[in-house]
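User: Just a sanity check before I run the rest of the batch. Below are the structure tokens for the first item. I only need the designed sequence back.
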């Protein structure tokens, strides 16, 4: 087979294109460097505690749901415990939940085992008139203030008004709270206590100086059914601490791993905040490398750095745990 040999014209075209790309890349790098030199990369450290168990091993008697302990004990005794829509043990996102009982540590979680079709009332609010515009109110209208309502309705109004104010507003709303543009009454106890769901419910509600029309619809939902899971993971505090380090700690190093100047950087960050603009000093670069934050050094500082810095961030320095934060500041914040 004859190897492909580019013509002179093709070769020169390739060289020219490469030169243009390389030049553009250099110009782009210069632009980024200029931008980065205007910003300060700030590092803060705050002492987290003597052990990770203090932060991540929960006491089930102190959780928001009084059903968590019942779920744990049921599964521990060999039974099955299920919940609809809400996960057992109030697990947030993908963060595991751990607890301890009689010296043994357990990881708590759940799996989806079914789907249920159900109907829930949904409260939606639409802005009607201002607080002072009372002439437009009809005789058949009935208006209450949110503070006059039962607690469940007061909460529902607070959430639903966020959805009402977000309509047509680029600012949006906290959609984890606002669902289907309003508030969903999911529990039987909520529906029994509510004054907004009955036939004699008020037509309007006032909240923070605004008057809203009340709208309630009963809608179909498909909700997951979760089965609680309990898994034994450790038989001692030391074993549990090792598990938590592997799961939550981003970096571990000691003062012996750093230069004297790098130690001073961390000391300043521990006392308040440390910051530098790019290009960083050797001491700051040593600290960033020890923290495995090479995106701030080896990548595009404007695009790569900080892309994985979401949620809680922990490092271990000289056997002490610290919550840390790295952020850019342009000098105005």
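Assistant: Here's the designed sequence for the first item:
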């Amino acid at each position: 087979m004859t190897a492909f040999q580019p013509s002179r014209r093709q070769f020169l075209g390739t060289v020219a294109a490469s030169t243009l790309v390389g030049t553009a890349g250099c110009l782009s790098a210069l632009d980024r460097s200029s931008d980065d030199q205007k910003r300060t990369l700030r590092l803060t450290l705050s002492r987290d505690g003597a052990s990770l168990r203090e932060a991540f091993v929960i006491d089930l008697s102190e959780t928001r749901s009084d059903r968590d302990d019942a779920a744990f004990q049921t599964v521990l005794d060999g039974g099955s415990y299920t919940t609809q829509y809400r996960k057992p043990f109030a697990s947030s996102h993908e963060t595991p939940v751990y607890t301890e009982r009689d010296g043994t540590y357990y990881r708590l979680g759940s799996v989806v085992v079914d789907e249920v079709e159900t109907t829930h009332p949904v409260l939606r609010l639409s802005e009607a008139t201002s607080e002072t515009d009372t002439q437009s109110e009809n005789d058949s209208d009935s208006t209450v203030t949110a503070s006059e309502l039962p607690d469940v309705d007061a909460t529902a109004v607070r959430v639903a008004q966020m959805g009402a104010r977000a309509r047509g507003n680029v600012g949006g709303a906290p959609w984890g709270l606002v669902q289907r543009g309003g508030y969903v009454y999911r529990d039987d106890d909520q529906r029994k206590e509510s004054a907004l769901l009955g036939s004699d419910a008020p037509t309007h509600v006032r909240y923070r100086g605004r008057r809203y029309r009340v709208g309630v619809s009963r809608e179909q939902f498909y909700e997951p059914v979760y089965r609680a899971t309990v898994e034994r993971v450790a038989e001692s505090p030391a074993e549990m601490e090792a598990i938590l380090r592997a799961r939550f700690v981003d970096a571990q190093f000691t003062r012996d791993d750093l230069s004297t100047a790098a130690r001073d950087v961390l000391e300043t960050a521990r006392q308040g905040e440390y910051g530098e603009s790019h290009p960083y000093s050797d001491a700051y670069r040593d600290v960033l490398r020890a923290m495995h934050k090479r995106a701030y050094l080896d990548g595009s500082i404007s695009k790569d750095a900080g892309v994985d810095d979401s949620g809680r961030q922990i490092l271990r320095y000289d056997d002490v745990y610290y919550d840390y934060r790295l952020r850019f500041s342009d000098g105005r914040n």
